[in-house]
């Protein structure tokens, strides 16, 4: 048996850094190499960071050599390239820059003490073929990491519990896995239905199991179907996670919580109750500021995918649709005024006249609007005008 010791395992590197036009005209500047260098710099203490201007145009091998001089003894290293499909999706037309990138990476990997791990979606692997000649192994060694199957999800529940002296019963684990892998599909008659999908979303499994574990009674040695039901179903756990993250994102970004919730409810979920998609805009995406959109992505509530050179966002999984809608409905009823809730119902029903209000309800709505004029949306202003027009009639 041969044991190889690697002194340095790099932080995961991404190639998704946007083109920095301050440096794009510099000789030897390559946006993808620049992105790698910024990823590696982020793993260093702040006082050791180089200025961004000093990194633009630096050769990858030269940077690694300088990095090892600073580290001292060199026992070999492993470079980790994460979400590597982005080399193809960030800018599909950027062929020349990709060739330069692979030449520099290949030169760095010609050092026999340096290895690399490329993690990427398998549907993009074949598209790398035109660029692999500079890579020493041509990426010939591959390992397919499948999504989390139902059986693997049960193992992820049962084995840690067993190590802690708790028996997570087969029936309970199977029930929870089946609950989390439900997906919505369109039936032959056009209606929507649910069926068991092949995979479980790991973050959702973690959220639900964390809640379940926290609510176990002291000294419990077994988790049964009954305990899963008493601790709250998956909908409850996922709704609580969604609510906590949206509240935190609103506080972090300064974007109103109501705006985030309504965006998730109306832009990411269609009238038919399936996932919708939103195209990333320059500053806002379908009305929501991109800083909030990116925060939702980082919380694993939504996911982005590059298609045809454009970024699209959708809910991370069908299993989030019902908890998101249920939690949004409860939050809106608890936090919005009579005017806001009435206007929302009016808009939802195609601005039907039967959903307009009159009498004391209208007077309360007008008083609220006068007290909080900055909180009124365009739709709420239209609603008030329609109510006043009906009253005049």
Mean of all residue-level pLDDT scores: 88
Shape: globular
Count of alpha/pi helices: 16
Give a count of the beta strands, DSSP E runs of length 2 or more: 12
* N-to-C SSE string, H for helix and E for strand: EHHHEHHEHEHEEHEHHHEEEHEEHHHH
Major sheet: arrangement of strands: 1-2-3
How much of the sequence is in beta strands?
5-15%
Largest sheet: 3 strands, parallel
Q: Determine the structural class based on helices, strands and strand pairing.
A: mainly alpha
Radius of gyration: 26 Å
Helical fraction equals 40-55%
| Distance from first to last alpha carbon | 91 Å
User: Stretches where pLDDT falls below 50 for ≥5 residues?
Assistant: 1-5
How would you characterize the overall build of this protein?
This protein has 393 residues and is mainly alpha-helical. Helices cover 47% and strands 11% of the residues. It contains 16 helices and twelve strands. It has helices spanning 31-42, 52-55, 60-71, 86-89, 95-109, 150-163, 170-180, 202-214, 225-231, 234-253, 257-267, 290-298, 321-335, 338-348, 359-371, 378-392; strands at residues 8-9, 77-81, 114-118, 167-168, 182-186, 192-196, 222-223, 278-279, 284-285, 288-289, 302-307, 310-315. The strands form five sheets. It has a three-stranded parallel β-sheet, with no helix packed on it. Strands 8-12-11 form a three-stranded antiparallel β-sheet, covered by helices on one side. A hairpin with a 5-residue loop joins strand 5 and strand 6 (192-196). Helix 8 crosses helix 10 and helix 11 packs across helix 13 (321-335). The longest helix has 20 residues, at 234-253. The radius of gyration is 26 Å and the shape is globular. Mean pLDDT is 88; it is low at 1-5.
